Structures are given as structure tokens and as C-alpha cells.
Amino acid sequence: MRKAADQGEGEAQFFLGFRYSRGVRVPKDVVEGVNWYRKAA
């Protein structure tokens, strides 16, 4: 998932943002989640 997000895949960026904002399989980090949501947009 991270590799696809780093390569600009919008859907992967959105789901990575979701994971960080909720703490799903990664440490919860709302700021990092918002950063990924912005990249997805």
C-alpha cells in the first residue's frame, strides 16, 4: 500500500490516510493521515 501511495496512486493515498487517522495497522497519527488525504485529493 505504501509503495503505491508513494508512486501517486490516489486510492492508496486515501486508504493510507484512513489508516493513519484511525490507527489501523500503523501508529495513530492524525497529522500524517491528513497529509495523505491531501495528496489523494
Provide the fold topology:
Layout: H1 2-6, H2 10-22, H3 30-40
Helix pairs in contact: 2-3
Description:
The chain has 41 residues and is mostly helical. It has one domain. It is built from three helices and no strands. It has helices at 2-6, 10-22, 30-40. The protein is globular. The mean pLDDT is 97.
First-last Cα distance = 17 Å
Model regions low in confidence, pLDDT < 50 over at least 5 residues = none
Task: Report the mean per-residue pLDDT as an integer.
Answer: 97
CA radius of gyration: 9 Å
Derived from helix and strand composition plus strand pairing, the structural class reads mainly alpha
> Using DSSP, what is the number of strands?
0
The backbone outline, from C-alpha atoms, is globular
Total count of helical runs of at least 4 residues: 3
- The number of domains is 1
Spell the H/E element sequence: HHH
The fraction of residues assigned to DSSP E strands is under 5%
* Biggest sheet details: none
**Can you give the helix content as a percent range?**
over 70%
Descriptive labels:
mainly alpha; 71% helix; 0% strand; globular
Brief summary of the model shown:
By secondary structure, the protein is mainly α. Helices cover 71% and strands 0% of the residues. It has one domain (2-40).
